[in-house]
């Protein structure tokens, strides 16, 4: 120390760059600046969107639980029973106080006993330990005894005696305690009982109070309140914060990061705090409960949040913890502006799959439910899928398993010359299918709008010449009858079309226009062509033959036979050939053949494989007809006509453009052409492509063959939107590691669903879905009833259901597979009142078997064989007969039984009970009789056993009033009918 | 207005802007007596005063602010990635001015027969507490600035790496962009390895080649015009210029865009580059390329040989005359080879811009493309 003091400074104190006080001041300022920087650093880290949302949600939660607590308190306060319980509790406690002296005594003794018990137990345990030790030595000695040793048996006995003694003492003490406790309980038992009842009453209140205490500072203890204040302070929040990033990890769902697959981590709940909690539906986003908690997110829903991540449906960047970095996508421009103002939203560029705007979320259903026929909440997607089916998108595109190898959509073109009136008609048709037949599914391959240059149009006209010429000259012969055997009647024909169910798949409307809104029924109805303009399209003879037997002309056609008689077929032919069904007259004049243009087209094709010189030589040597056919063939292949139609010389050819994972494709792979105003999203691109497929070519210098060739289907906005939903669901993302559980028979179900789609069964029947679903035929049957059956417009609605084809919900449990197999090949009317005919489909028995399996597996019914029917005995059959008689249920006032017909209008007869034995499954009969409205809501079958008061509903005198036995007996009776 | 914008974009074309920057650097930091005289005649020495400094910084600020009024410039220059290059612009200009300011002060002192500023205080440094204290203060201030920067402009992260889709333009970190820009003119091993090596060798060799003891250890210019001038020429005229071009003026597909031009990813520029051998044989002599590699590349080989054989000789009689007389032949040879190798870069740049010249010598068979 002293040395240091002596040491002189080596630098002259006067020699300084800067004065120390100034330096110190500068240092102070900089240090403060640095401190401020550190403060800013921590605060910028601390300030996060999710924390604010969680804070807000906590306030809402406190408010919610406070309301709940006060509500449940109010309920308790008004509950007379609760009040009475409280009063009696008070009285009991008063009584107990009266016996206080005894209780006091017992309690005192109990305390002593408990102390004694502890001591005696300890004595016993000590003794036991030394006994165990002794036993070890004893056994060792005993073992050695064989070799000369021996154990001290006396000492062993002494030990055992002592041990027993101590154990007895402890046991006695314990029993004494129990006895005293019992006595106390006895005294208090009535109090306990009342308390239990009170607890039962107050459990809601207590539950809410407990929840409130966890969040509400006012309800917390002092130390909890302190902890609650401190734990969320900046920096302190590293230990145990209440506000923190919440995340779910999904090891079974993978996210593809190009180089590896990682589990999906979802942090959405950090801001969407209330998403799984009931009761916060009315809060603003992001705090609100999921709007469909029963279907999504909820733990008991089909899509619980711990199994299915938010991005599985919504897409987006689930690791993002701010509004923008989660890649939210607004629904429209207004919402985008609103978000910018409210949340500072900006588009997140660096994520391939931004969140789907709300209206497109349905597309995600398709990722897993890829074979579905009906899905609750995904109505637009389902309409889109049906549109794909009816438009035949999959003919030219691969679109995943659902649409693989479905048969060709378009009519066969093998015999056009035998079917169509003239080559000119083919020309006019190709120029504009929609003018000749409003609503046609045939797209326009050649466009003649103002967007198309005159030169292009000129070329198009010659291209059409070539295609028409090829089709006409290559047509094969099909023998058409020379005369229709009966004279048709237009009015009868019109009635037939309305009555037998043609309108399920066809429109008959020369002025048909797209409805403003898109209805699934309309799409089903566009499955077949709009039956107008046939007069100058084809010959009545051909139509007659076609109606009689469609598969004779076109083996693969989806058009079934309606089992028309000659007269009926002639009537319908006459109707469809009436002048009224002609759309506006086509005044288009066919431009003449232009050799120069045709040469040009031919050259375009030829130059790909030969020199210009050779090609010109060859062209000059060709007669014009040959040239046209050559160009026609090339063009048909170019436009892929053979994908949808059978074309002579191109049978079996099909070229498809893959769309399997179009939703995964990077946005940069989509060619937006010169459409700069279009938002750069997959959705906008798809919709534009669907609405105007060649618009991306506009303004580009391309040769004709390089241009996009997707034809224009004239989709409306709504249709394009529904279709883009389907396309946005075409992804390879591994959400499919969680397949929808279709049961182990999923392949049968998929195959059945495919047959149902291929044959448009859903146009008449509700096949899958929900009981309150209306048959798509509802409106057309109602029209028929009003127009032809003289029903009143106002009362008709109540009775339409009776005239509709049956729902097929539960069909697998209802009918016997054997009967159904027969029925598909030989349909017959079951309910006379239903005029819609079940068509005779031209099916292979494999398809029918697949359908049987589908129905059975879907409804978990026995398949392929079902259990034999076992009757309860003759007595049961007789009892059933009694019940069926006019004394009781009077079944035959409506039902047919073999040859015995009921009174009244045959239209109102119910199905033949003699057929039941062959047709229905016994268990279903019981279910049906028990509550017909539950099985088939709206049925005319009366309910004999009131489900509300089942036990008293049956007649007392039959089978001693046992309703279950009555049901069995009715079943036995019905099953015995027609028995040989 | 549009005319102004178009002219700015036109003038920033590298052919024009590089020539302009090169000329400016040559005049501002004159390497030869002739340029030095011109410098004085234009009264540019007034820039190396305090007033001149303020003027320079104001002019720079004004230019950058004017440019910033245009949305396209803003969208590029103020990307978090590009902020350093804008800051660099200010720092480079400031320190260039500062060094010249100090140098001219010392030059004046030397002219008066005095000793330079740095020699006056006998090179004594007061370490404790002066130096340590101000270092501490500087450290804290720097840390604070970096924290503020980090908080206000978070690190720019991009999307998930996707081998099927690379970012466009794909840019290296800002400090590598001059190297990346050189790739436009040279093969990677040349632009990425040889030229930087020569550059470093040049810098390293300066003290060994020049035995001038009288004018080292302090800021000066007049007596070391050539060395200071050519350093400024390569550092500011080439390196910093290329950095700026790579950061601000290169857009999608590595196309060149004016500072006020929209980065159109579809912009198409016709660039068909031709080798010297193709010019010689196919354009001038109208005959196919010979099969023999050396015969084919004879033009380029002769060019390079004469470049390295004659240019040092020419230089020794002209701008390097002074140096040639002062140093040994070996020192001169070493220096001149490195020096003219560096000149290959601007030479090649001009050849590319003016004649679409791809390679002077192109022997892909030997991976030798110059």
How would you describe this structure to a colleague?
Chain A is mainly alpha-helical and 980 residues long. Chain A has 36 helices and six strands. Chain B has 370 residues and is mostly helical. Chain B has helices at residues 2-11, 14-28, 33-41, 50-68, 71-77, 83-111, 117-120, 127-152, 177-182, 188-209, 225-249, 276-284, 293-296, 298-317, 321-326, 329-355; strands spanning 362-363, 368-369. In chain B, strand 1 and strand 2 (368-369) form a beta hairpin. The two termini of chain B are 43 Å apart. The interface between A and B is medium-sized, with 28 and 26 residues.
| Gyration radius over CA of chain B | 24 Å
Main sheet characteristics of chain B:
2 strands, antiparallel
Number of helices of chain B: 16
Structural class of chain A: mainly alpha
Number of strands of chain B: 2
Structural class of chain B: mainly alpha
Oligomerization status of the protein chains: heterodimer
Beta fraction of chain B: under 5%
> What is the averaged pLDDT score of chain B?
89
Note the run of SSEs of chain B as H and E. Answer: HHHHHHHHHHHHHHHHEE
Radius of gyration of chain A: 42 Å
Strand content of chain A: under 5%
What is the strand tally of chain A?
6
Q: What's the helical proportion of residues of chain B?
A: 55-70%
Cα end-to-end separation of chain A: 128 Å
Strand order of the largest sheet of chain A: 1-2
What's the shape of chain A?
A: extended
Looking across the biggest beta sheet of chain B, what order are the strands in?
1-2
Shape category of chain B: globular
Unreliable runs of chain A = 1-5, 7-11
